[in-house]
Structures are given as C-alpha cells and as structure tokens.
C-alpha cells in the first residue's frame, strides 16, 4: 500500500539553469570594490564619476606606506591587475563596468610623489584627470613614452585617456623658469563639446599656456587660485585668476557656465576681469564662497557665507542642477549667516564642527541651508555633493560621534561603531551618505565604517539614483549600512568604491548575464518529475577556441535532480550544440514542488587557456 502511494504522489522539480556567475565586486553579493592589499601598501581614492552606461571611474594615488617598492592589485574581483609605483606614490585611474568588473586600470608616475585628485569623463568615454606632480613623469600608461617635467617644485597636470585607457594627451603648468612654485589641480570637468575645465591653486608666477604662447598669472596672499579652460586637444582657451585662498571644486551647467567654491579671508576680488567684485570676510576664521563664470570666463556673480563673529566655513564641493540651482557642502564652526543677500539665515554648529549644505538659485540667492552635527566635541565634515535630475541632493562626509542628520523637526541619529580598543583616538571617524529632497528635507541617511579613520572624498549619482562614493580605509569595514554584513579590508590602507541604491541600501552585486562566459544556453528552465523523467538543454560556444573547452554543470540540490557528464568542445565542433540531460530523482519525501539551480561553467583546468 505504501508503494502505491509513493507512485501516485509524483512531485515535479522545476530546474533553473544559469551560467556561472562572474564575481566582480570585492564582496560576492554586494556592490563594493576594494583596491589595494599587501604589506605596507597605501592607496587612496580621491574622486569618482559614473557615465551614462554605468561605468565607474576612480582616481587617486597609491604607493608604499613605508620604505621599499610595493604592488597593488586594482582588480576588485578574483582576477589580478597589479600596478607598481615608480616612486613613493603614483597616480592611478581605473574603470569598472556597471557590474563591478574591472575594465582597465592605469597608472603614471616618476621617482617622486604624484597625486590625481579629480576625474571626469565625456560622452565618448574619454577620461580626464588632474592633480600635481614633480620632477619627470611619463604620462603614457602604455608602452610609449610621453614625459613631462615640472617647471616649479610641483606642477599642475591634466591628462586625457581614451575609453580604453590609452594616452591621448597630457599638459602641465608650473612656475616660470628660476622661480619656486607649488601648484596643484584640484578639480576637473568637461562640457558637451569636450572642452576641459580645471581649477586649483598656485604660487609665484605661472605660465598657464601649455603651448608655445604665454599666459602668466602671479599669485598674491589672497589671490592664488585659477580657473582654466582647454579645448578638446588640450590647447588653452582662457585662464582666469579669482581672489580666494583655496578652491576645492568645479561644476558646469548645460550653458557652459562654470561654478567654483572654496574659502577666503580678508577682502578678495572675485572678478577675474577689469572690474572689481570684492567680498569681505568679517571676524576671525574663514568664509566660504561660490563663484559663477560664463563660458568665456567672465564673472556672472560671486557670493559668500559667513558672519561677523569668530567662525570658520570651509566649502569642499559644488554641484549644479538642470535649473541652474547651486549646491555646496563643507564644514561649519560656530555661527555663520548663509544668506549671501540682505537677509539673515544664521546656522550654529551643534558640535565642534558641523556639516553644512546650501542651495542657491541661478542668480545666487539663497533657497535653503541646513546643518547637521553631534554633541560635545564631535566633528562632522561634508566632503562632496552631487545632485540628480529631480533636484535631490546627495552628500557624503565624515563624523565622529552620534549626530542627527535630519535638518527638520524629526530626528535621524547615526552612531559610529565603537572604538576597536580603549586607546583608539576619539577623533576617529566614519562615513555618512545622505539624500535630501529638493526642498532640503531628509529622504534617508546612512553610515558605514569601523571607527578607524575612514575617509570619503567624492560622491556621484547615476540616472537611476544609484549613489557612488570613494575614499580610503584600513582595517576591516562593514560596508553595508543596513542589517546585512559586507566585511572587507586588511590592516593597510585601501581604496573603496561603494554603490548604494536609490533607497540608500548597499546595492546587490550583479551576476553575469547568459552568454558572458563564452557560451550560450538554449533555455534557462526545464521541468522534470521525481519518477525519473528527463529533460535536456543545449550549450554552444560563442567563438572558435584554439583548443579544447570542457563545460560542466552542477546542481544546487542533487537530491531532486542530477545532470549528466561534462561536454567537450573542439576547434572543429565548437558551433554544434551539445546536450546536457537532467534527470529527476525520487527522494521518497513528500515535499511538494521543488526548485533546483544548475550552474553551468567552463572547467578552467581542462580547457585551453585562451578561452
């Protein structure tokens, strides 16, 4: 009687078939990439951007935290892409696809220290970086040689690579012969015509024409920043000098207007032309500024935030939306007036220092301003801001103690992880990422870190609202801001690239799609019965191999269904489909409809190395 019952209680198994997932991100199931690792290595990501296809570009520096040469692996997945610095630190730029796979990683450097501080990408996928270097550096990351030699102690560089990471051109700007000069490019942007804009700081007298002409500017105490425009071939279009102490960031709108931000003290003239537009900082410390130039480099307006008492404002980043509204973020200490007009909008830091975020309209008038902070001596800093097509603002930065990141009446407190041990410095910090609506209301706020001094430098947002950050960390960090865990890292300094979805959750890693592994499946699901029925699916290679290719399949639940022997393809039969047979198994358990996943992959040990 039991035998009869078993015969009638036939249970089907639905079988899903997939190619072997290609691990790309450093975390197998979450979108975090880490570059670095190895004894005494130091790697630091300074800037991240994402293109319309979801490719992710990161730039920074890498090298040795101590003496001796090191090697850094820039492949965040199971592969290896080692780069070795020529000197103490070299500059790097890397490209990941939307799935976190390494497309390429390039470096350039000489015998000294090179830093790449900002990256931009145009509509054709050409990649631009800027930063500083000294001595002689080969800026061709390939087999060729394209050397530039600094004129001053440190020169500004601008580099252009094509979409494959090949050298296109590089330019440098430094002091006139015989003068000491310290110069650096802080930020780069590119417009729809592939004109390139760079801002940064300089000392002494510098010739900003990379060609045979001359375009000298001379720095003074509160007048030592520049804005530069090159055409797509790297030729000078114009260069302007603006009256600030530091400049930190640059942004462009669709009309070619150029926005910069930074800080200044005393009185500074922000009109780079024959006119005068003085802004004056009152009280002790520094004020923040935002400047708007038109596409010819002429001043449209310049605004400042500050106050009459003792205070300090440091503006670290600027972004502009499709309506010309301008967003800045940075650090506030004490009380400052964020209305650059006749009105007053005072904000006071809650803690030692607070994050501030400001929104101005296209005329430079205040729309709103907000600050976030903790209590006591905790320190918070906004390091980068980005804006999406709906006017939502995304801010990242660092904080050291419990802090309320809701600028409204509500409370959204983020708390950093406790110190690793009692001797840890209380100024250690964690990363925060937050999203504000177009009216400045909090949408969400997240944090990650291990309280060992994580630094976040840059934020970017794509058309789907995914949010990317980069910086550096050491130790083991859980990059999942939610209840999950994505632990990565070692005791040395590594670069991180993190991707959050539009809700602020750590995005899932994306597995390879069918066909990516070099073969195609005839179907992705079949159905078999426990009574022993069979079903088949076919596999065919996508290209002719130079030798044998062996493909096998395995089941997530061999108790429900099994698959046949591996298939062997040759250079002659590669285009002929071959079948795998799946057989249902009777496990004598009445468990209803079941599912099993069969993974299909190439046997690397038995297959030709070229496939």
Structural account:
The chain is an all-beta fold. The chain has a domain at 2-21 and 516-602: Immunoglobulin-like, CATH 2.60.40. The chain has 1 helix and 51 strands. The strands form 14 sheets. A 6-stranded antiparallel sheet has the order 9-10-13-14-17-18, with no helix packed on it. It has a 6-stranded antiparallel sheet with strand order 27-28-31-32-35-36, with no helix packed on it. A 5-stranded mixed sheet has the order 45-1-51-47-49, with no helix packed on it. β15 and β16 (196-201) form a beta hairpin. The longest helix has 7 residues, at 2-8. The two termini are 55 Å apart. Residues 1-13, 421-426 and 511-515 have low confidence and may be disordered.
Uncertain regions: pLDDT < 50 for 5+ in a row? 1-13, 421-426, 511-515
Q: What is the typical, i.e. mean, pLDDT?
A: 87
CATH topology annotation of the domain at 2-21 and 516-602: Immunoglobulin-like
**CATH architecture type of the domain at 2-21 and 516-602:** Sandwich
Structural category: mainly beta
Number of helices: 1
Q: Can you identify the CATH class of the domain at 2-21 and 516-602?
A: Mainly Beta
Shape: globular
Strand order of the largest sheet: 9-10-13-14-17-18
Q: Give the biggest beta sheet.
A: 6 strands, antiparallel
Indicate the proportion of strand residues. over 45%
Give the total of beta strands: 51
Radius of gyration: 28 Å
**Helix percent band:** under 10%
Q: Secondary-structure blueprint of this entry?
A:
Blueprint lengths: L1 H7 L3 E8 L12 E4 L5 E10 L5 E9 L7 E2 L8 E2 L5 E8 L5 E7 L6 E7 L5 E7 L2 E3 L8 E3 L5 E7 L5 E9 L8 E7 L5 E6 L3 E3 L8 E3 L6 E6 L5 E7 L3 E7 L5 E7 L2 E3 L8 E3 L6 E7 L5 E7 L6 E9 L5 E8 L1 E3 L8 E3 L5 E7 L5 E9 L5 E8 L5 E7 L3 E2 L8 E2 L15 E7 L5 E7 L6 E7 L5 E7 L3 E2 L8 E2 L5 E7 L18 E3 L3 E5 L4 E8 L7 E7 L5 E3 L3 E3 L8 E7 L9 E9 L9
Parallel strand pairs: 1-51
Antiparallel strand pairs: 1-45, 2-43, 3-4, 4-7, 5-6, 7-8, 9-10, 10-13, 11-12, 13-14, 14-17, 15-16, 16-19, 17-18, 19-20, 21-22, 22-25, 23-24, 25-26, 27-28, 28-31, 29-30, 31-32, 32-35, 33-34, 34-37, 35-36, 37-38, 39-40, 40-43, 41-42, 44-46, 46-50, 47-49, 47-51, 48-50
């Amino acid at each position: 009687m039991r035998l009869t019952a078993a015969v009638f209680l036939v249970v089907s198994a639905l079988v899903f078939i997939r190619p072997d997932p290609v691990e790309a991100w450093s975390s197998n199931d979450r979108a975090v990439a880490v570059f670095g690792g190895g004894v005494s290595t130091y790697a630091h990501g300074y800037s991240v951007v994402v293109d319309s296809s979801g490719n992710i570009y990161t730039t920074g520096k890498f090298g040795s935290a101590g003496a001796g040469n090191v090697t850094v692996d820039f492949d965040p997945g199971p592969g290896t892409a080692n780069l070795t610095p020529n000197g103490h630190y070299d500059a790097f730029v890397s490209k990941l696809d939307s799935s976190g796979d390494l497309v390429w990683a390039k470096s350039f450097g000489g015998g000294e220290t090179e830093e790449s501080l900002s990256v931009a990408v145009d509509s054709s996928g050409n990649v631009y970086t800027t930063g500083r270097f000294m001595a002689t550096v080969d800026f061709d990351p390939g087999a060729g040689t394209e050397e530039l030699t600094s004129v001053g102690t440190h020169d500004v560089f601008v580099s252009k690579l094509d979409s494959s990471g090949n050298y296109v051109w590089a330019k440098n700007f430094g002091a006139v012969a015989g003068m000491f000069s310290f110069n650096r490019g802080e930020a780069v942007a590119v417009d729809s015509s592939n004109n390139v804009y760079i801002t940064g700081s300089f000392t002494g007298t510098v010739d900003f024409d990379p060609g045979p002409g001359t375009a000298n500017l001379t720095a003074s105490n509160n007048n030592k920043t520049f804005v530069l425009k090159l055409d797509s071939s790297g030729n000078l279009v114009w260069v302007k000098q603006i009256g600030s102490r530091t400049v930190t960031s640059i942004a462009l709108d669709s009309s070619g207007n150029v926005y910069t931000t930074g800080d200044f003290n005393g009185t500074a003239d922000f009109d780079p032309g024959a006119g005068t537009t003085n802004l004056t900082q009152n009280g002790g410390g520094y004020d923040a500024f935002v400047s708007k130039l038109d596409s010819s480099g002429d001043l449209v307006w310049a605004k400042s935030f500050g106050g009459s008492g003792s205070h300090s404002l440091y503006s670290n980043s600027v972004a502009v939306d499709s309506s010309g509204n301008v967003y800045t973020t940075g650090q506030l200490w004490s009380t400052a007036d964020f209305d650059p007009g006749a009105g007053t909008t005072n904000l006071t830091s809650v803690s030692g220092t607070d994050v501030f975020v400001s929104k101005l309209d296209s005329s430079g008038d205040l729309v709103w301003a907000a600050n976030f902070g903790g209590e006591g001596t905790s320190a918070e800093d906004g390091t980068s801001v980005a804006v999406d097509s709906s006017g939502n603002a995304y801010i990242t930065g660092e904080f050291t103690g419990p802090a309320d990141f809701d600028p409204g009446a509500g409370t959204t407190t983020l708390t950093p992880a406790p110190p690793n041990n009692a001797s840890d410095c209380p100024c250690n910090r964690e990363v925060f990422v937050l999203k504000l609506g177009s009216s400045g209301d909090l949408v969400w706020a997240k944090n990650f870190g291990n309280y060992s001094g994580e630094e976040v430098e840059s934020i970017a947002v794509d058309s789907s609202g995914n949010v990317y950050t980069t910086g550096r960390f050491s130790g083991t960090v859980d990059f999942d801001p939610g209840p999950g865990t994505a632990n990565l890292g070692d005791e040395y300094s590594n670069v991180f690239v993190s991707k959050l979805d539009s809700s602020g959750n750590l995005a899932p890693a994306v597995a390879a799609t069918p066909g990516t592994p070099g073969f195609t499946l005839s179907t992705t699901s079949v159905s078999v019965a426990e009574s022993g029925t069979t079903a088949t699916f076919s596999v065919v290679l996508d290209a002719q191999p130079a030798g044998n290719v062996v493909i096998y399949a395995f089941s997530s639940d061999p108790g429900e269904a099994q698959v046949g022997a591996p298939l062997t393809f040759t250079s002659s039969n590669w285009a002929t489909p071959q079948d795998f047979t799946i057989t249902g198994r009777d496990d004598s358990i009445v468990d209803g409809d079941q599912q099993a996943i069969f993974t299909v992959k190439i046997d690397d040990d038995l297959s030709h190395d070229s496939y």
